[in-house]
Amino acid sequence: MRGKRSLKAVAFLAALTITAGMTSGLIQSRYAPAPLTAWADEEGTDGNTGTLYYTKYSDHVSVWGCDYQATSLEVPAAIEGVPVTVIGDYAFDGSSASTITLPDTITSIGNWAFAGNSNLKSVTIPDSVEYIGIQAFDQCSVLSEINFPDHLIKFDGQVFRDTPWLEAQRKKSPLVMVNGALVDAQTCTGDVEVPSDVEYIAPSSFMSSSVTSVVVPASVKSLLSNTFAFCESLTSVELKGVELIESMAFYDTPKLTDLKLSGKLKTIEGSAFMDDDNVRATITFYGSEATWNGVEKDSEEAYLKNATMVFDESHSDPEVVKGDINDDGSFNIADAVALQKYLLANPDNNVKNWKNGDLVEDDKLNVYDLIAMRTELTK
Questions:
Q1: Does residue 1 fall inside a structural domain?
Q2: Residue span of the structural domain in which 365 resides
Q3: pTM
Q4: How do residues 26-46 score in pLDDT, each as one tens digit?
Q5: In DSSP terms, which residues pair with 74 in a beta bridge?
Q6: Residue 217 DSSP code
């Protein structure tokens, strides 16, 4: 068995190596800010500021390297009058800097951007950041404090692996969440129900965990690559609202025999169930057979081809009630009280589904939502 695992692991890592650039590109195109046109059309001009190396385009600047001996690095908001919006892949990996300051113009942080930094104890993610790449802070061995903006960030896989910050969060809860994003669940065991206020699950979140069953709420629309890879004890998964299942999402899940899929499902990418050729599963689809036939998928993929299909058209997800942040099924004064306590940092705030409280729809929960909530209640 150990030899078999080693061979599978080698194959898996080889596949990741081959597809890493492609996968990152797909994720960025799907979840990161819309690409700037100049990036695609221009070659750009390289330069340096003394401690930083960058490429300047007509409408943005991407920082891609630094002086690795510098103990302090500060990224400017603009270079030659052009805004700095991207921290590129490997930009600060292995640097000696103990302080790194990022401006509020940064929208994305690249793969392994800070990886291997042994001096960085604290970092503040700017409010403008929307996407953070693969293992961006991997093996930052003293990174214990991370200040996040109060909105959803799309994290790629294992962004904070081998950091004191992640270990501290795992001690609080095996479901590590940041503003509606599930960042890590690898220490989860047994049966898990992802909270209803989670709307994004990072790639590889459950990888190699000892979970036996997982229920994913209707708020999550995509199941990304490697989410359940190597979950050898996983027998049951329910995806209440998932519309996309990416390649390798269920890589090597030999006991996954009970899969429930949303009737809103549109696409199952090829090789989503790699290495599960011998699994005989029951797939319950919350919709009609005609709707299932319309799902974009490889019907010859062994896991799907060997499955017994059950069509359940009676199933429906609970109605989303805007303003219902205490998740009791109705919107009333109790929700406004809960939000006010939340904004005052009162731990007894009863906020269970922050997304329902985002009445101004800016992926933030703040005083503007409280004003909107009071206005609605007054009506």
A1: no
A2: 333-378
A3: 0.78
A4: 333 333 333 343 445 568 899
A5: 101
A6: -
